[in-house]
């Protein structure tokens, strides 16, 4: 990757999701392009519904980068309102938007969560400044597209693709930095909200096993609208309890074994190609 010849000062931005690719990209930039790292603004869009493992991982990265990772919040929200959601109270950030959407849970077709909790805070953070947004899409993902802003002042760069780095390289970066991968990769394939509707059956089971309290909270959001008789559920096959008790196996992904290499661990659960929430998981 060649350094940019800038005609005017631009902001350099790298959004961290708590996933492997954006994390590896931050490490890569810090170590390989210190002049860009120097100018880089790292940020994390905290939805208030993050897994504890994600928050710990972001803290770990912040230490490694020796730069602050700015926590982006929707307009008008403060960190203590985020904490409400993370500390088991129902009227946190997600609860606020859920009420605004008349308890209609977000889904792949109705991604109001991504818009309100990620995209709008990001575009507000950038404002009208000229900016370059660095995305962790790799060279071995030729068809993958990340979030491309419709705002003309935000340009996108993909250093891994520009430099020809593939998945194996990404794991080497994470391994050699000592940061490793987030703990949730043992039972879940991506970062994002604990109740993310992109999860597979095995991941919901993993949530129940690893965070029974969060599983119960996700269940609580599934409710019957008595006026319309419509039941809102995270999964199209039914309630979470119905989903996890179904005898069929939605996925044939393997169980993680502790002794494996980082890459093997994620290979078993990796969903790079299945079109999940790119802005949330990269
Ligand atoms: S991780 Fe899932 S639930 Fe959370 S904002 Fe992204 S798409 Fe929505």
From TrEMBL:
Listed name of the protein: Phosphoadenosine phosphosulfate reductase family protein
Signal peptide bounds = none
| Ranges where the Phosphoadenosine phosphosulphate reductase domain occurs | 15-143
PANTHER family reported for this sequence: PHOSPHOADENOSINE PHOSPHOSULFATE REDUCTASE, SULFATE ADENYLYLTRANSFERASE SUBUNIT 2
Q: Which domain of life is it from?
A: Bacteria
Q: Which Gene3D superfamilies match?
A: HUPs (3.40.50.620)
Species of origin: Candidatus Thiothrix phosphatis
The family database entries (Pfam families) matched by this protein are listed as:
PAPS_reduct
């Amino acid at each position: 990757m060649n350094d940019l010849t800038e005609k005017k000062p631009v902001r350099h931005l790298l959004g961290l999701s708590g996933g492997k690719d954006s994390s590896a990209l931050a490490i890569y930039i810090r170590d390989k392009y210190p002049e860009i790292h120097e100018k880089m603004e790292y940020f994390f869009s905290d939805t208030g519904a993050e897994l504890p493992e994600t928050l710990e991982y972001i803290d770990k990265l912040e230490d490694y980068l020796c730069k602050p990772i700015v926590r982006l919040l929707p307009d008008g929200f403060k960190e203590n309102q985020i904490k409400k959601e993370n500390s088991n109270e129902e009227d946190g950030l997600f609860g606020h938007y859920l009420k605004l959407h008349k308890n209609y849970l977000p889904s792949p077709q109705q991604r109001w969560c991504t818009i309100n909790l990620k995209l709008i805070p990001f575009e507000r953070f950038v404002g009208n400044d000229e900016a370059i947004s660095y995305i962790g899409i790799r060279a071995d993902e030729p068809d993958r597209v990340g979030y491309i802003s419709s705002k003309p002042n935000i340009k996108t760069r993909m250093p891994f693709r520009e430099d020809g780095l593939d998945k194996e390289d990404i794991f080497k970066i994470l391994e050699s930095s000592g940061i490793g991968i987030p703990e949730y990769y043992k039972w879940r394939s991506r970062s994002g909200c604990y109740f993310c509707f992109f999860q597979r059956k095995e991941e919901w089971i993993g949530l129940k096993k690893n965070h029974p309290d969060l599983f119960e909270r996700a269940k609580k959001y599934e409710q019957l609208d008595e006026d319309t008789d419509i039941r809102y559920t995270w999964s199209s096959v039914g309630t979470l309890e119905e989903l996890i008790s179904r005898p069929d196996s939605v996925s044939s992904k393997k169980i993680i074994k502790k002794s494996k290499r980082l890459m093997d661990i994620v290979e078993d659960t990796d969903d790079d190609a299945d079109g999940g929430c790119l802005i949330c998981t990269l």
